[in-house]
Amino acid sequence: MKLVKTNLVFHDDGTPQFAIDTSPEHIKLHCILLAVAKSKGGKTFFITHLLNWLKFDLVAVITPTFESNSGQFKKMNVQPEHVFDPDDPDVVSKITALVEKERDDLLEYRRKVQMVKELKEVYRHPRNLLENYDLFSEYVDLFGGWIKPEHKWNGRKPQIAVFVDDAQSTAIFRNRRFLNLTTRHRHVGSMPGDEPSIGLSLFIAVQNYTATGGGLPKAIRGNATHLALWRTKNAKELKLISEEMAGEVSPEEFLSVYEYIMGDEGDKYAMMFTDLHRKEEHPSMFRKNYKDFVVFNT
Could you tell me which residues come within 8 angstroms of residue 253 by beta carbon, excluding any fewer than 6 positions away? Predict the structure, then answer.
């Protein structure tokens, strides 16, 4: 058996899966990150820190417990209008509308910048508008000069995150539109032409990886790009997690790293972080507490 080569070449003409640049030590974006730990195990603490480290411009939160965790959410500068109820059947439409408004604001800013540029080229100064002044008056400031269009993100696409917290057993994980969002999250807020969409990253914190009537649906688990896992006494669940990671790492290797990290009994909040799409320069797909890479001795 042998291969006979052709001259066919595949070209990636779609939206890149990871379209946002991040600092060298951090993960790629966009992402779907799952954080699994028992109650008060460190999930929210970790994700709030990570969202700050990754410098998201806008964070929307889907949670029924915003008030009780308001201290941690304040660190992310979450606005009241960006907090959503996981039992709201229209929650996905509201999130999508949020991203699309940011897209529309950016396109309007670009339109104004281009218009001012063209007016400068044709008329040089607003006083030369003469009979066309009323037509273009919105581009003239109070001092008789050309306006300088403003945009809250200074003309760049905002980085947007959605944090789903304490929502296990709510309607959100049974919401077909939310399940669909996990497959199209990077395409939300589509831009004209071939320009990548604004997109969003999903951070989902749960107490159980699987649970009758309230665990993570397979549609979400299967699209995850990152997993943060704390200590678990559920051997069956741990085995399932290791098997579902098998596309990137063998169950045996996954479990050996888990045992190594959790072997630090002095670390009450030890966490195993798995990056299924690590950067080429990262020495490992595994980290302890996100801060330290776990590498195998050679």
Answer: none
> Quick count: other Cβ atoms within 10 Å of Cβ 168?
19
Indicate the residue type of 113.
Answer: V
Q: Reduce the DSSP state of residue 147 to 3 states and report it.
A: coil
In this structure, are residues 164 and 172 in contact, taking their beta carbons and an 8 Å threshold?
Answer: yes
| Residues found in the chain | 298
Query: Using 50, 70 and 90 to split pLDDT, how confident is the model at 18?
Result: low
The radius of gyration of the chain from alpha carbons, rounded to an integer in Å, stands at: 24
The mean pLDDT of the chain is 90
pLDDT tens per residue, range 145-163: 999 999 999 999 999 999 9
Give Cβ neighbours of residue 134 (< 8 Å, ≥ 6 apart). none
3-class secondary structure, 96: helix
Is pTM beyond 0.70? Reply is: yes
Cα angle for residues 82, 216, 174 (degrees, 5° grid): 65
CA distance 111 to 105: 10
Distances from the Cα of 269 to the Cα of 165, 234, 272, angstroms: 18, 17, 10
Q: What is the token pair recorded at 22?
A: 């991040």
Q: Do the beta carbons of residue 96 and residue 184 sit within 8 Å? A: no
The stretches of 128-221 forming alpha helices (DSSP H) are 133-136, 176-184, 218-221
Q: In degrees, to the nearest 5, what angle opens at C-alpha 167 toward C-alphas 164 and 247?
A: 65
